[in-house]
Amino acid sequence: MERTRTKRLPPEIFELPVEKMREGYYTDAYFVHTREVLLRDGRHPRVVMQVFQKHDAYLGGIDEAIAVLKLCADDWDDLTVHALYDGDRIGPFEPVLTFEGDYTGFAHLETVYLGVLARRTLITSNVARVLEAANGKPIIFMPARHDHHRVQTGDGYAAYVAGQVVGTEIGVTSDAQASWWGGRGVGTVPHALIASYGGNTVLAATKFAENADPDINITVLVDFENDSVKTALEVARALGSRLWGVRLDTSGQLVDRSLWGELGDFEPRGVNERLVRKVRDALDRDGFEHVRIVASGGFTVERIREFEERGVPVDSYGVGSALIRGENDYTADIVMTDGRPAAKAGRRYRENPRLERVE
């Protein structure tokens, strides 16, 4: 599914637990009680709700938040909704979503749509910043193992949106992460397969290649024996043109064997500049200039930026837990009630000409 700024994802794609959301099952109890109070009192205030956050960020989750309103509000046709688009660059306190209607029709949904926006904006913003730091090089989005499986689908789409915004390729590691945009999970020959073949990386890589689809880019982890230069060359010689890349993933507690004779003037542990250059030089000397180097293991925006500034010959970065860290909290305020200003002290109705009507 191609993403365009003016085309929103259909509500059905999110597979929302509609009945439970309508019941308030996922909502902070005080919103449910608030709605009950108003309904018992026969009060149906017509309000303008305004949603914002407090950072420079890239918007994520807006289509999903709209889906919550469309499918779970009492009467979507009663609402007048305006919103930005997933991937839009947003500023502090800028409204990203406003809607007007009978408050009792959607009071029970505030927790849900704020949580959606918070999570997806965090992921979209983190991935966009990593891609910007990587200077157009592709990254592999690898946080799946660091979080609950139920967040994979939306997080994968948020990462994809970031890639579309920055104009850089991004790979995800599970089919769930790729499902909303019609992609597929990608990955490398893992340590588990190598261990299953008795620690023989070449044998594991060969068997992987024999059973892989022809269009799969085969990338092999080469740190199993903590001798990345040696293993990278062995794998390249065995797979030849079938090998797309090697992945360096040396533990931050280990020093690769190729660096043992050079200790003293640099931080030798983990995947470092010296190790990358050694692997690159060895591959080039043996005629494997086509083999790419993927670097992973504790990479953050700052570390990627440092590698890029120093011209370290990495072709792609694998980034995991750093992409799900941080916060991007949202707030929803009633700013008008029955046509009159009703925002709490310090808040006010803010015009935003970028908002577009949602049908």
Helix and strand string, N-terminal first? HHEEHEEEHEHEHHHEHEHEHEEEE
Question: How many separate domains make up the residues?
Answer: 2
- Largest β-sheet summary: 6 strands, antiparallel
- Largest beta sheet: what is the strand line-up? 13-12-1-5-3-14
What distance separates the N and C termini? 21 Å
Radius of gyration: 25 Å
Written account of the structure:
The protein is of the alpha/beta class and about 350 residues long. The protein folds into two domains: about 10-120 and about 325-359, nicotinate phosphoribosyltransferase (Alpha-Beta Barrel), CATH 3.20.140.10; about 135-325, Aldolase class I (TIM Barrel). About 35% of the residues lie in helices and about 15% in strands. The protein has eleven helices and 14 strands. It has helices at about 20-25, 30-40, 60-70, 110-135, 150-165, 175-180, 190-195, 200-210, 230-240, 275-285, 300-310; strands at about 45-55, 55-60, 80-85, 90, 95-100, 140, 170, 220, 245-250, 290-295, 315-320, 330-335, 340, 355-359. The chain has a six-stranded antiparallel β-sheet with strand order 13-12-1-5-3-14. A six-stranded parallel β-sheet has the order 7-6-11-10-9-8. It has a two-stranded antiparallel sheet with strand order 2-4. Helix 4 (about 110-135) packs parallel to helix 11. The two termini are about 20 Å apart.
What is this structure, in a nutshell?
This protein is an alpha/beta fold.
Write out key terms for the chains shown:
nicotinate phosphoribosyltransferase, 6-stranded parallel sheet, alpha/beta, TIM Barrel, 2 domains
Which helices and strands, and how do they pair?
Elements: H1 18-23, H2 29-40, E1 46-53, E2 57-58, H3 62-72, E3 80-83, E4 89-90, E5 97-102, H4 110-133, E6 139-141, H5 152-166, E7 170-172, H6 175-178, H7 191-196, H8 201-210, E8 218-221, H9 228-239, E9 243-248, H10 273-285, E10 292-296, H11 301-309, E11 316-319, E12 330-337, E13 340-341, E14 356-358
Parallel strand pairs: 6-7, 6-11, 8-9, 9-10, 10-11
Antiparallel strand pairs: 1-5, 1-12, 2-4, 3-5, 3-14, 12-13
Helix pairs in contact: 3-4, 4-5, 4-11, 8-9, 9-10
